Amino acid sequence: MIQMNNVVKKYPNGVVAANGISIDIKQGEFVYVVGPSGAGKSTFIKLMYREEKPTSGDVIIAGTNLSKLKNRQVPFLRRQLGVVFQDFKLLPRLTVYENVAFALEVIEEHPKKIRNRVMEVLELVGLKHKVRMFPSELSGGEQQRVSIARSIVNTPKVVIADEPTGNLDPETSWEIMNIFEEINARGTTIVMATHNREIVNTIRKRVIAIEGGMIVRDIFGGDYGYEG
Ligand code: ADP
Ligand code: ADP
Protein backbone atom coordinates (compact mmCIF):
# COMPACT_ATOMS: atom_id res chain seq x y z
CA MET A 1 0.00 0.00 0.00
CA ILE A 2 2.85 2.35 0.90
CA GLN A 3 6.35 1.85 -0.45
CA MET A 4 9.43 3.99 -0.22
CA ASN A 5 12.58 3.09 -2.09
CA ASN A 6 15.78 4.76 -0.93
CA VAL A 7 14.07 8.10 -0.32
CA VAL A 8 16.23 11.14 0.38
CA LYS A 9 14.79 14.52 1.32
CA LYS A 10 17.16 17.45 1.52
CA TYR A 11 15.54 20.78 2.39
CA PRO A 12 16.78 23.95 0.66
CA ASN A 13 18.67 24.90 3.85
CA GLY A 14 20.77 21.74 3.50
CA VAL A 15 19.08 19.69 6.25
CA VAL A 16 18.73 16.05 5.22
CA ALA A 17 15.48 15.00 6.91
CA ALA A 18 15.17 11.64 5.11
CA ASN A 19 18.42 9.87 4.45
CA GLY A 20 17.79 6.73 2.41
CA ILE A 21 14.43 5.50 3.68
CA SER A 22 13.02 2.23 2.32
CA ILE A 23 9.77 0.86 3.67
CA ASP A 24 6.88 -1.40 2.73
CA ILE A 25 3.56 -1.03 4.52
CA LYS A 26 0.83 -3.47 3.53
CA GLN A 27 -2.89 -2.86 3.20
CA GLY A 28 -4.62 -2.98 6.57
CA GLU A 29 -1.52 -2.41 8.72
CA PHE A 30 -1.43 -0.04 11.68
CA VAL A 31 1.98 1.59 12.02
CA TYR A 32 3.36 3.99 14.61
CA VAL A 33 6.21 6.29 13.62
CA VAL A 34 8.31 7.26 16.65
CA GLY A 35 11.56 9.09 17.28
CA PRO A 36 12.98 12.16 18.99
CA SER A 37 12.05 15.68 17.96
CA GLY A 38 13.70 16.63 14.68
CA ALA A 39 14.25 12.97 13.74
CA GLY A 40 12.33 13.30 10.48
CA LYS A 41 8.91 11.86 11.40
CA SER A 42 6.88 14.71 9.92
CA THR A 43 8.98 14.71 6.79
CA PHE A 44 8.41 10.95 6.41
CA ILE A 45 4.67 11.55 6.72
CA LYS A 46 4.64 14.60 4.43
CA LEU A 47 6.38 12.57 1.71
CA MET A 48 3.40 10.17 1.80
CA TYR A 49 0.79 12.77 1.05
CA ARG A 50 3.05 14.73 -1.24
CA GLU A 51 3.26 17.78 0.93
CA GLU A 52 6.98 17.34 0.27
CA LYS A 53 8.65 15.77 -2.75
CA PRO A 54 11.70 13.53 -2.37
CA THR A 55 15.05 14.84 -3.56
CA SER A 56 15.68 11.30 -4.82
CA GLY A 57 14.04 7.90 -4.51
CA ASP A 58 10.45 6.79 -5.01
CA VAL A 59 7.31 7.03 -2.92
CA ILE A 60 4.52 4.72 -4.12
CA ILE A 61 1.04 4.99 -2.60
CA ALA A 62 -1.68 2.52 -3.65
CA GLY A 63 0.23 1.81 -6.86
CA THR A 64 0.85 5.45 -7.76
CA ASN A 65 4.44 6.65 -7.94
CA LEU A 66 4.20 10.13 -6.45
CA SER A 67 7.34 11.29 -8.26
CA LYS A 68 5.50 10.78 -11.54
CA LEU A 69 2.32 12.46 -10.35
CA LYS A 70 1.50 15.74 -12.07
CA ASN A 71 0.44 18.60 -9.82
CA ARG A 72 -3.06 18.52 -11.24
CA GLN A 73 -3.30 14.83 -10.24
CA VAL A 74 -2.54 15.52 -6.57
CA PRO A 75 -6.25 15.96 -5.69
CA PHE A 76 -6.81 12.39 -6.91
CA LEU A 77 -4.12 11.15 -4.54
CA ARG A 78 -5.73 13.03 -1.67
CA ARG A 79 -8.90 11.07 -2.26
CA GLN A 80 -7.04 7.79 -1.69
CA LEU A 81 -5.53 9.09 1.47
CA GLY A 82 -6.95 10.85 4.52
CA VAL A 83 -4.75 13.10 6.66
CA VAL A 84 -5.20 14.01 10.33
CA PHE A 85 -3.12 16.73 12.03
CA GLN A 86 -2.21 17.57 15.61
CA ASP A 87 -3.93 20.97 15.31
CA PHE A 88 -7.04 19.60 13.52
CA LYS A 89 -7.00 22.17 10.69
CA LEU A 90 -10.78 22.51 10.54
CA LEU A 91 -12.32 25.38 8.61
CA PRO A 92 -13.53 27.75 11.36
CA ARG A 93 -16.41 29.32 9.46
CA LEU A 94 -17.94 25.97 8.50
CA THR A 95 -20.07 23.79 10.78
CA VAL A 96 -19.12 20.24 11.75
CA TYR A 97 -21.34 18.96 8.97
CA GLU A 98 -19.87 21.32 6.38
CA ASN A 99 -16.29 20.54 7.37
CA VAL A 100 -16.90 16.85 6.75
CA ALA A 101 -19.10 17.28 3.65
CA PHE A 102 -16.59 19.59 1.94
CA ALA A 103 -14.41 16.80 0.52
CA LEU A 104 -17.46 15.17 -1.09
CA GLU A 105 -18.89 18.42 -2.40
CA VAL A 106 -15.71 19.25 -4.31
CA ILE A 107 -16.01 15.97 -6.19
CA GLU A 108 -19.68 16.74 -6.88
CA GLU A 109 -21.05 13.69 -5.19
CA HIS A 110 -24.86 13.38 -5.26
CA PRO A 111 -26.37 15.52 -2.40
CA LYS A 112 -28.29 12.62 -0.91
CA LYS A 113 -25.19 10.42 -0.95
CA ILE A 114 -23.22 13.22 0.71
CA ARG A 115 -25.76 13.53 3.50
CA ASN A 116 -25.84 9.80 4.16
CA ARG A 117 -22.09 9.42 4.14
CA VAL A 118 -21.45 12.49 6.32
CA MET A 119 -23.94 11.30 8.94
CA GLU A 120 -22.45 7.81 8.78
CA VAL A 121 -18.91 8.98 9.54
CA LEU A 122 -20.10 11.45 12.19
CA GLU A 123 -21.89 8.58 13.88
CA LEU A 124 -18.72 6.50 13.76
CA VAL A 125 -16.79 9.24 15.60
CA GLY A 126 -19.69 9.86 18.01
CA LEU A 127 -20.57 13.41 16.92
CA LYS A 128 -23.85 13.02 15.11
CA HIS A 129 -25.55 15.24 17.68
CA LYS A 130 -23.22 18.20 17.02
CA VAL A 131 -23.53 18.59 13.25
CA ARG A 132 -24.60 22.24 13.45
CA MET A 133 -21.85 23.40 15.78
CA PHE A 134 -18.77 25.31 14.73
CA PRO A 135 -15.25 24.11 15.59
CA SER A 136 -14.82 26.87 18.21
CA GLU A 137 -17.79 25.44 20.10
CA LEU A 138 -16.14 22.04 20.48
CA SER A 139 -13.56 20.62 22.85
CA GLY A 140 -10.19 19.60 21.42
CA GLY A 141 -11.16 15.94 21.43
CA GLU A 142 -14.36 16.72 19.57
CA GLN A 143 -12.49 18.80 16.99
CA GLN A 144 -10.15 15.87 16.41
CA ARG A 145 -13.17 13.60 15.93
CA VAL A 146 -14.45 15.94 13.24
CA SER A 147 -11.06 15.95 11.60
CA ILE A 148 -10.99 12.13 11.62
CA ALA A 149 -14.50 12.03 10.16
CA ARG A 150 -13.33 14.38 7.42
CA SER A 151 -10.28 12.19 6.73
CA ILE A 152 -12.36 9.05 6.14
CA VAL A 153 -15.42 10.50 4.40
CA ASN A 154 -13.95 9.62 0.98
CA THR A 155 -13.33 6.03 2.15
CA PRO A 156 -9.57 6.30 1.57
CA LYS A 157 -7.35 3.22 1.66
CA VAL A 158 -4.87 4.96 3.94
CA VAL A 159 -5.17 7.41 6.83
CA ILE A 160 -2.03 9.27 7.81
CA ALA A 161 -1.91 11.06 11.14
CA ASP A 162 0.81 13.38 12.44
CA GLU A 163 0.67 13.50 16.26
CA PRO A 164 -3.13 13.28 16.35
CA THR A 165 -3.21 13.15 20.17
CA GLY A 166 -0.47 15.75 20.67
CA ASN A 167 -2.89 18.46 21.85
CA LEU A 168 -5.22 16.22 23.84
CA ASP A 169 -5.40 15.12 27.46
CA PRO A 170 -4.70 11.42 28.20
CA GLU A 171 -8.32 10.30 28.49
CA THR A 172 -9.33 12.03 25.27
CA SER A 173 -6.26 10.55 23.56
CA TRP A 174 -7.43 7.02 24.40
CA GLU A 175 -10.86 7.79 22.96
CA ILE A 176 -9.27 9.05 19.75
CA MET A 177 -7.15 5.89 19.58
CA ASN A 178 -10.30 3.76 19.86
CA ILE A 179 -11.64 5.51 16.76
CA PHE A 180 -8.43 4.88 14.82
CA GLU A 181 -8.55 1.23 15.86
CA GLU A 182 -12.13 0.98 14.65
CA ILE A 183 -11.20 2.53 11.29
CA ASN A 184 -8.26 0.13 11.01
CA ALA A 185 -10.51 -2.83 11.89
CA ARG A 186 -12.60 -1.92 8.85
CA GLY A 187 -9.55 -2.41 6.63
CA THR A 188 -8.00 1.06 6.38
CA THR A 189 -4.21 1.28 6.63
CA ILE A 190 -3.12 3.69 9.39
CA VAL A 191 0.25 5.42 9.71
CA MET A 192 0.56 7.54 12.84
CA ALA A 193 3.50 9.62 14.05
CA THR A 194 3.31 9.89 17.83
CA HIS A 195 5.18 10.84 20.99
CA ASN A 196 2.68 9.00 23.17
CA ARG A 197 4.74 6.28 24.84
CA GLU A 198 1.86 4.90 26.89
CA ILE A 199 -0.35 4.40 23.86
CA VAL A 200 2.42 2.78 21.79
CA ASN A 201 3.32 0.44 24.66
CA THR A 202 -0.31 -0.51 25.35
CA ILE A 203 -2.00 -0.76 21.95
CA ARG A 204 0.76 -2.79 20.33
CA LYS A 205 1.29 -2.28 16.62
CA ARG A 206 4.17 -2.13 14.16
CA VAL A 207 6.65 0.51 15.34
CA ILE A 208 8.96 2.30 12.92
CA ALA A 209 11.58 4.36 14.74
CA ILE A 210 13.32 7.19 12.91
CA GLU A 211 16.51 8.97 13.94
CA GLY A 212 18.55 11.37 11.86
CA GLY A 213 16.33 10.76 8.85
CA MET A 214 16.92 7.00 8.94
CA ILE A 215 14.85 4.04 10.05
CA VAL A 216 16.70 2.63 13.04
CA ARG A 217 14.09 0.09 14.15
CA ASP A 218 11.04 -1.57 12.58
CA ILE A 219 9.27 -4.12 14.79
CA PHE A 220 5.78 -5.64 14.68
CA GLY A 221 4.27 -5.28 18.14
CA GLY A 222 7.28 -3.23 19.22
CA ASP A 223 7.48 -0.73 22.07
CA TYR A 224 8.13 3.01 22.14
CA GLY A 225 11.70 2.43 23.10
CA TYR A 226 12.98 5.90 24.01
CA GLU A 227 13.76 7.29 27.45
CA GLY A 228 12.33 10.52 28.83
P1 ADP B 1 10.14 15.43 13.47
O1 ADP B 1 8.75 15.39 12.90
O2 ADP B 1 10.67 14.08 13.82
O3 ADP B 1 10.28 16.39 14.61
P2 ADP B 1 10.83 16.83 11.00
O4 ADP B 1 10.59 15.95 9.84
O5 ADP B 1 9.84 17.89 11.32
O6 ADP B 1 11.11 15.94 12.30
O7 ADP B 1 12.23 17.55 10.83
C1 ADP B 1 13.43 16.83 10.49
C2 ADP B 1 14.54 17.83 10.26
O8 ADP B 1 14.25 18.60 9.09
C3 ADP B 1 14.73 18.85 11.37
O9 ADP B 1 16.09 19.13 11.48
C4 ADP B 1 13.98 20.04 10.89
O10 ADP B 1 14.47 21.23 11.44
C5 ADP B 1 14.18 19.99 9.39
N1 ADP B 1 13.07 20.55 8.63
C6 ADP B 1 11.77 20.18 8.68
N2 ADP B 1 11.02 20.88 7.80
C7 ADP B 1 11.86 21.73 7.18
C8 ADP B 1 11.71 22.73 6.16
N3 ADP B 1 10.54 22.96 5.59
N4 ADP B 1 12.82 23.39 5.79
C9 ADP B 1 14.01 23.14 6.33
N5 ADP B 1 14.24 22.23 7.28
C10 ADP B 1 13.18 21.52 7.71
P1 ADP C 1 -13.06 18.77 27.58
O1 ADP C 1 -13.82 18.01 28.60
O2 ADP C 1 -12.54 17.89 26.46
O3 ADP C 1 -12.03 19.69 28.14
P2 ADP C 1 -14.65 21.13 27.21
O4 ADP C 1 -14.72 21.33 28.69
O5 ADP C 1 -13.92 22.07 26.35
O6 ADP C 1 -14.16 19.67 26.85
O7 ADP C 1 -16.14 21.02 26.65
C1 ADP C 1 -17.11 20.20 27.26
C2 ADP C 1 -18.38 20.26 26.42
O8 ADP C 1 -18.84 21.60 26.29
C3 ADP C 1 -18.14 19.75 25.03
O9 ADP C 1 -19.19 18.87 24.70
C4 ADP C 1 -18.15 20.98 24.14
O10 ADP C 1 -18.80 20.72 22.92
C5 ADP C 1 -18.99 21.96 24.93
N1 ADP C 1 -18.44 23.31 24.73
C6 ADP C 1 -17.20 23.74 25.04
N2 ADP C 1 -17.03 25.03 24.71
C7 ADP C 1 -18.22 25.43 24.15
C8 ADP C 1 -18.69 26.66 23.60
N3 ADP C 1 -17.91 27.76 23.52
N4 ADP C 1 -19.95 26.70 23.11
C9 ADP C 1 -20.72 25.61 23.15
N5 ADP C 1 -20.34 24.41 23.68
C10 ADP C 1 -19.11 24.32 24.17
Automatic annotation (TrEMBL):
Residue ranges of every copy of the ABC transporter domain listed in the record: 2-227
GO CC entries: plasma membrane
Any single biological process term in GO: cell division
Subcellular location: Cell membrane
Gene3D superfamilies reported for this sequence: P-loop containing nucleotide triphosphate hydrolases (3.40.50.300)
Pfam name, any one: ABC_tran
InterPro entries: AAA+_ATPase, ABC_transporter-like_ATP-bd, ABC_transporter-like_CS, ABC_transpr_LolD-like, Cell_div_FtsE, P-loop_NTPase
Topology versus the membrane: Peripheral membrane protein
PROSITE patterns, per the entry: ABC_TRANSPORTER_1 (PS00211), ABC_TRANSPORTER_2 (PS50893)
GO function terms (MF aspect): ATP binding; ATP hydrolysis activity; transmembrane transporter activity
Domain of life: Bacteria
Keywords: ATP-binding, Cell cycle, Cell division, Cell membrane, Membrane, Nucleotide-binding, Transport
Role, per record: Part of the ABC transporter FtsEX involved in cellular division.
Description of how the protein assembles with itself and partners: Homodimer. Forms a membrane-associated complex with FtsX.
Protein name, as recorded: Cell division ATP-binding protein FtsE
